[in-house]
Amino acid sequence: MFGEATLEERRRFYAEEWSPAELPEFIVKSLSMREFGFDHSGAGPSDRYNRIASVAQLQGVLVRLAPYGVYSSVSLYRTPERRDGWLGAELVFDVDAKDLPVRGCGCAKGEVCELCLEEAKQHVLGIAEVLREDFGLKEMHFVYSGRGYHLRVTDREVLELGSRERAEILDYVAAGVVPELSELSFGYPAHFRRRMRLLLPRLSEAVLREAGVPKRAREVLLSEGELEELVQGLEKGTGVLARKLKKKGTEKLMELVRRINAEMVDAKVTVDVKRILRLPGSLHSKVSMKCMLVRKIESFDPLSQAVPKFVSERESKGIYKREI
Ligand SMILES: [Zn+2]
Predict the structure, then answer these.
(1) Which of 9, 89, 250, 284 fits as disulfide partner to 75, beta carbons 3.0 to 4.6 Å?
(2) Where are the domains of the chain?
(3) Separation of alpha carbons 111 and 273, rounded Å
(4) CA 198 to centroid of ligand 1, rounded, Å
């Protein structure tokens, strides 16, 4: 987003700007049980199977090597340097703004901007809501990844889940959140309303037609006034979908919503417990932004809070233009 960081900038970042306070508590207390991966050249984290014994050792490595990227495992191991003695893994959801299937902005594939980053954030908030309300999970950590968000869950209940159980949770959380089509006696769940509010205005005629949504229902969804009525109706109680879109329109729209929701999350990241994720506090050198723990997600603005000092200095020197 701000262009690639040079080796000199990486060095300055780790020597002058980074401090151990950047590391979230949930990483610090399990640091020596995690496998660390380093990307030295920008080609990916090929230097794996590393054990870092302490925060002081990590700081030494970061200052000395100024790596292009730093990663740590979602799993904890008795012997992380051999990926041996598995003790459990966080439950992780990865929403990358550059991979969102439907975006309200004009970003090309692989690009991100303020708007799609905000959409990724809203999506992650929706996932957290389902995990909290339907699964009773509590220990959730939001991490700005540099181009989207990681949601990392560390409740004891999730740590020992296998890949299949993780896939089932993902399926429920990411895709299967659409309420039954029958008239319910209570309202639509908040996370469903949130997703619909976000998604419906982004659906184009072509996408709706391809999904088999009938003409009359398409007209409702594409008319600003009728769509607004529909979205407001969702807040008041159930039945508005069937009333406005009829049975087939509702069914086809729900199929489409389910498919899009599923594509919002990188399924491989949730299911694969051998994954390593960008270390919160480290530099995402490709875009010159900080990957960081987000404490107040609702008000978090990556374009002001995740920008390293060297980027603002570049701008004041007029070296690089901000590209958004
Ligand atoms: Zn965008």
Answers:
(1) 89
(2) 1-162+273-324, 190-264
(3) 28
(4) 14
Distance CA 198, CA 109 (A): 20
Average pLDDT over residues 149-154: 98
> 41 is written with which tokens?
């050249």
Q: How far, in Å, is the centroid of ligand 1 from the Cα of 118?
A: 9
List the alpha helices (DSSP H) in the chain: 7-12, 25-28, 55-65, 114-135, 156-159, 163-170, 190-199, 205-210, 215-222, 224-236, 240-264, 267-271, 302-305, 309-316
For residue 302, how far is its CA from the centre of ligand 1 (angstroms)?
13
The token pair at 120 is 């990724």
| Letter string b/e over residues 239-261, b meaning 16 or more CB atoms within 10 A of that residue's CB | ebbeebbeeebbbbbbebbbebb
pLDDT bucket at 318, cuts 50 / 70 / 90: low
Distance 119 CA to ligand 1 centre (A): 9
End-to-end CA distance of the chain: 8
pLDDT tens by residue, 165-207: 999 999 888 765 455 544 454 677 777 788 888 889 989 999 9
| Distance (Å) of CA 286 to CA 10, 43, 114, 204, 289 | 11, 10, 17, 32, 8
Residue positions counted in the chain? 324
pLDDT for the residue numbered 227: 95
Among 3.40.190.170, 2.40.440.10, 3.10.310.10, 3.90.920.10, name the CATH number for the domain at 1-162+273-324. Answer: 3.90.920.10
Distances (CA, A) of 229 to 115, 197, 225, 234, 236: 24, 11, 6, 9, 11
Q: Which residues are catalytic?
A: 94, 96, 266
202 CA to middle of ligand 1, Å?
13
If DSSP codes are grouped into helix, strand and coil, which group holds residue 7?
helix
